[in-house]
Protein: DNA replication protein DnaC
Organism: [Clostridium] leptum DSM 753
Amino acid sequence: MAMGYSKEIIEAANRAMEQRRRQSITKAEQRRRSFFSRYPRALEIERELSRTAAKAAKAVLTGSNARLELERLKESNQALQSELAALLKSAGVSEDYLEIRYACPLCKDEGYVDGKMCSCMKQLLRDEAYQRLNALSPLSLSSFDTFSLDYYGEAPLKAGGIPPKKRMEDIYRYCKNYAANFDPQLSPSLLMQGATGLGKTHLSLAIARAAIGKGFGVIYCSAPNIIGKLEKERFRSARGSADESDVYLLECDLLILDDLGTEFPTSFSSSTIYNMINSRLMASRPTIISTNLTMRELEKQYSQRLVSRIMGNHVRLEFLGSDVRQKKRLIR
Ligand SMILES: Nc1ncnc2c1ncn2[C@@H]1O[C@H](COP(=O)(O)OP(=O)(O)OP(=O)(O)O)[C@@H](O)[C@H]1O
Ligand SMILES: [Mg+2]
């Protein structure tokens, strides 16, 4: 599975793996030290064992009487092994007590087996991505399970309109389905529109959570944050070329661009947002955009080019209701 993790996440996962390996080794060293101090004979046995191994190699190389010599070495080797096993047993520890116990016996905490990424490394990448996302948002609280339809009214907001509850039921079902079947090559981009506190961020994070759980690379950012970050990076690197976070924004499996329209409008912000959305569309990579702005307001704030791209290529979800944030505060 090709996963669009950022360099930052990959490096963090590599560091975590390295630390895991070092810890396995350190722990084995500690066990060995304490065991040998109690049973000095065990250390002697280990040394003799490595000496017999060296002798066996030599016997094979020189060839003279190799078979007889090997036979003899094998016997003494077995005697040493069982003596060591008896020592371990009498000490009440397991057979592998003196050996390195890797967290992952498959890859020996290297992260790769035969040049392929081990499943434990994939899990680490997922954890790192999840942690980063979690640091930015209350991800743990935003799941489909904690989303309730009880906050939305049964009565239409205007005569002949759709009851908010009905609309939100549809949106909830759509998002849940979207998350369950998420595929970075096939899933469409979404535009979540609606007033404040209706659950846009909540549902987009619930989707993010599900996608991360499946091992996809997800990035969550709010428009003002990402514009600020990119502006700083551009300022620092006079190169003016694409930076790491730039590349990741374009290449991650799912980009969540929250609070579109709340960034300070400049020519930099509008061209950056246009490029981000357009490049992802060109590469058929899904983006979930959330905004308080109506279509008309979007048209006012952004170029016709951007709005027509959003309109033409995003599934539009119009959230209805009245501020859940406030309702929750009142209940508490
Ligand atoms: N249907 C719901 N069930 C449970 N909690 C909800 C629901 N909708 C929103 N919330 C909670 O209410 C708060 C506001 O929701 P959220 O941040 O998703 O709103 P939003 O539509 O993104 O608003 P804004 O436009 O201001 O960003 C969050 O704490 C969220 O978890
Ligand atoms: Mg929000």
